[in-house]
Input
Amino acid sequence: MYMKVLVLGPGGREHAIIRALLKDPAVQEVHSAPGNAGIAQMVPTHAIDANNPQQVLDLTASLGADLVVIGPEAPLVAGVSDALTQAKVPVFGPSKAAALLEGSKAFAKEVMAAAGVPTALAKVASNRQEALEALQAFGAPYVVKDDGLAAGKGVVVTEDLEAALAHAQSCFDAGGQVVIEEYLDGPEASLFVISDGQRGLPLAPAQDFKRIFDGDQGPNTGGMGAYSPLPWLPEGFVEEVMERVAQPTIDQMARRGTPFVGVLYCGLALTSRGIRVIEFNARFGDPETQAVLARLRTPLAGLLLAAAKGELPADLALDWDPRSAVDIVLAAQNYPETPRKGDAISGLEQAEALADVHVDHAGTAQEGEQIVTAGGRVLAVVALGETLAEARATAYQAADKISWAGQQKRKDIALAASQNQIRVPQP
Ligand code: AMP
Ligand code: GLY
Output
């Protein structure tokens, strides 16, 4: 079968997905909506509103797409997957009801409790008094999360009670509630589990870097870089996450009549008391996907179509490039606040000329001959290497060739892991 695939979304994750789909011999055509300047160099892009179910249905019909892959959370929450399912178009990405695992942290906690999935103890608060009581009950460091969607930026972790209360108040002022949690010690890992509604299939674990500055300082971002695989993970980690976290969650969602089809993104902490879920997302993570899919050799379109149809084969063994992948995010001036747009980007060709390097675009736009910045996270520079240290060195060598006014990047992506300095705390 020769497939036509439509990928929804504008970012680096979507560029990485499209790159992987184009390597699948079963894929005849890939289309993107809305895409970005980098994606437009690879496949046709369509300037529709990907969050509008009717516009997506119309485009899908006019292309005759065999599969729609939804990248970001916004179209999921807008019900784009539901509309496609109703129109009998295979879609990779959960229904609005199932995407609530990401859309509401309170709902995710409820599902985890019902499924017996280990996660941080948490309390929901809707006013200052409730917030104060919960913060005092758990003690410092304080963890306060906006209950709704906040693109990874709604979480404050702080030793300062006033700052914790101020974040809670800003969420209340916006008409929302907050989830207050116990603090989880230990390193974090992201595991993407492809689900067909019944069965889960794990991809390779990755780690991302959420804070804007080196040494995990400054505010949270969508993610400033990532690497895969994780040499420091204990033996049996993936099996344990499948058994204790992913499969029970998939089962619980099916039992509720809202089966989860798509990527169950398990954000995990390896604490002194064992594995804990930090968060679920209902989609591929960005920028982890850029590193993970750079290593996947199994054809991606077949995998996503099988999941979309509820036909993921049992005991499918995925084929991985044994090398390591590292990606470095290059962000615009003033990200994660209001990023400056329209800066001319130089050095892209020089970076991509290096062996085992490619650049996934996120917030970029084409202005005549020139590619310019058009968002907070602008590019992810991806490199493969025999070792993590080699992949990292190549990724930075490439990233250092790319510049624009006010560009930001972290210098310590994958550094601790490449020096064998990550320790999982023991009880
Ligand atoms: P989230 O949006 O829930 O993934 O949170 C963003 C980031 O905040 C996570 O990647 C962690 O680094 C941090 N974080 C969230 N929850 C906790 C917690 N309970 N304890 C420690 N750090 C946390
Ligand atoms: N890398 C974090 C996220 O995609 O939410």
About this structure: The pocket of adenosine monophosphate (ligand 1) is lined by residues 120, 143, 145, 152, 155, 157, 181, 183-184, 188, 210, 220, 267, 278-279 (CB under 6 Å). The longest helix spans residues 237-255.
